[in-house]
Amino acid sequence: MAYQQRRFGGSNAGGGSRGGSSFGGARRGGGSRGPAKKYIHPSKFINKAVAKADEVVYESKHKFADFAFSARLHENIAKKGYITPSAIQDQSIPSILEGKDLIGLANTGTGKTAAFLLPIVERETGTQTSPTVMIIAPTRELAQQIDEQFREFAAGLNLYSALIVGGVSVDRQLRDLKRRPQFIIGTPGRLKDLINRRYIPLDRMTTLVLDEADRMLDMGFLPDIRDIVNGMPVERQTLFFSATITPEIQALVNTFLKDPVTVSVRTSETSEHVEQTVIEARDKNHKVELLTEMLKGTDYEKVLVFGETKFGVQRLSDHLDNSGIPSVAIHGNKNQSQRQRALKQFKDERVRVLVATDVAARGLDIPNVSHVINFDTPQNYEDYVHRIGRTGRAGASGKAHTFIDIQR
Fold first, then answer.
1. How far apart are CA 345 and CA 335, in angstroms?
2. Looking at the chain, which residues constitute the CATH 3.40.50.300 domain(s)?
3. How does residue 274 score in pLDDT terms, banded at 50, 70 and 90?
4. Which of 75, 111, 161, 316 could lock onto 86 through a cystine, CB 3.0 to 4.6 A?
5. Second CATH level (architecture) for the domain 64-264
6. What pLDDT digit, counting tens, does each position of 83-131 carry?
7. Tens of pLDDT along 340-381?
8. DSSP secondary structure string, 5-32?
9. Looking at 83-87, 140-144, 188-192, 379-383, which range is the least confident one?
10. Which spans in 30-182 are helix H?
11. Predicted confidence (pLDDT) per residue in 169-188, tens digit
């Protein structure tokens, strides 16, 4: 496979393809365009991976058996094979059990979902009031993952949840709400809609979890979150999880939390540990040829390919599938069940390639991704870091390739 890694000086060449073929990312339906793409110099897509050898392994102060959970909850934890807590779990669970507000600074994939679910499930066991817990996440996929973990932890404890997300029929969600579940798990837009329509009462809420708060702000959900939180009782426990603390997030913390405990297990950006190279292509069709040839290589075991548009992503996935490379796609034109099915096929390694728009870069925990390939360059460098952060996780090595125009 002849792709070229180069070092770039002051070239003013574009950071992505300009062509407009049917595989492209340039077109948007109805002629409307999103935010202007920021120029990223090609040199930003090249990095020699830094070894992780010097990272200190965290030594947990507790075992899961040490926490003051009910016998049934301990059974459910054991069924999942959990013995020793991760850093975020070890340091957060005691404070959450004590009812304290908490700021958890942690990367995706560190076990933070169990860190907040387990102590809340313990406290809610036996409660008759509902709903009392609201968990807000930035994406449908992350909300679904939280709900799935909740159901595993809460098995046999007479606790129920309603998953309230966009992209699926509201009728099922309304039926779930009629069961008066203790846990409401969802995304800001659909939650706000059903709150405004008086299907979700907020007056008895005792616990609020904001998961991946930085990403919710990035996605423009701040007004919805403020509206939701303003309708809740002042006396509540608030748990706030984020990968970063920006001035905007600090302002939210000051508004929503009271005397919070801060637990920081944030590690350096994953991009430092990912081998990053560029691949030069003449146009979109040339990119497709190169990508197809690459993916026939045996070292491309579990590959996440990012494209810019829903249309382009679906066309590319179909092309790969028809070329004998098992592939599925995730994008905004897929309904929730289709997206979940595609994600499960990829996680279970029934397909080797997942082609996605940036919706898959945020909040998803996809283990053992060997390569991230940027078929289309992202909108900005922050999105690039989120994309390639899907590989090189938990001590594993990872590789990222980015297609760019041939540099003249």
1. 16
2. 37-53+270-405, 64-264
3. confident
4. 111
5. 3-Layer(aba) Sandwich (3.40)
6. 999 999 999 999 999 999 999 998 777 889 999 999 999 999 988 778 9
7. 889 889 988 899 999 999 875 565 667 788 999 999 998 888
8. -----S----SS-----TT-SS--GGG-
9. 379-383
10. 71-79, 87-97, 112-124, 140-153, 170-178
11. 899 999 999 999 999 999 99
Of 149, 108, 133, 234, nearest in space to 191 by CA: 133
Give the Cα-Cα-Cα angle 69, 70, 75 (nearest 5 degrees).
Answer: 95
When pLDDT is averaged across residues 46-67 and rounded to a whole number, the result is 75
Q: Which residues pair with 102 in a beta bridge?
A: 239, 261
Task: Write the DSSP assignment of 209-248 as a string of letters.
Answer: EE-SHHHHHHTT-HHHHHHHHHTS-SSSEEEEEES---HH
Q: Which CATH architecture has domain 37-53+270-405?
A: 3-Layer(aba) Sandwich (3.40)
CA dist., res. 387 & res. 50, Å (int) = 18
Cα–Cα distance, 245 to 217 (Å, whole number): 11
Backbone phi and psi for residue 72, each to the nearest 5 degrees, phi listed first = -70, -40
CA distances to 7, 28, 383, 384 from 42, in Å: 8, 24, 15, 12
> 170-179, long-range: CB within 8 Å, 24+ apart, which pairs?
170/194, 174/199
3-state DSSP call for residue 131?
coil
